[in-house]
Design a protein that fits this description.
With 111 residues, this protein is an alpha+beta fold. Helix content is 27%, strand content 36%.
């Protein structure tokens, strides 16, 4: 599969293919609030358990797993969270199994 390449949210006139396209797709899903995209309201991540006042690791992980099920090429994912209580941000470090024994690392920041 082939897609336009995004670089820190900016479109580059280049293409991303294969494994990198899977990673980019997952990053777009995780960077989109569920219901934000009018034409696909089911796309995205429910962020209330990640960014809410009462952060619960298990609920946040469940939301991430649920969101990544939207990308059918991801077989499984391991999530590590880094919480910065000072600025109330969270970074998700993900290791995704994309099949054929391939693992891809992703990082998503939320503030």
């Amino acid at each position: 599969m082939q897609d336009i390449k995004l670089d820190n949210g900016d479109i580059r006139f280049d293409y991303v293919t294969d494994d990198e396209e899977i990673v980019q797709s997952a990053e777009i899903i995780l960077g989109t609030r569920k219901g934000e995209f009018v034409f696909a309201p089911e796309m995205g991540l429910t962020r209330s358990n990640i960014l809410g006042k009462h952060y619960a690791k298990e609920l946040a992980a469940s939301d991430v797993y649920e969101a990544l099920q939207q990308e059918e090429r991801i077989r499984s994912v391991k999530v590590k969270t880094n919480i910065n209580e000072h600025d109330r941000s969270i970074t998700l470090n993900l290791m995704a199994d994309i099949g054929e024994g391939k693992q891809k690392e992703m990082e998503v920041d939320y503030a």
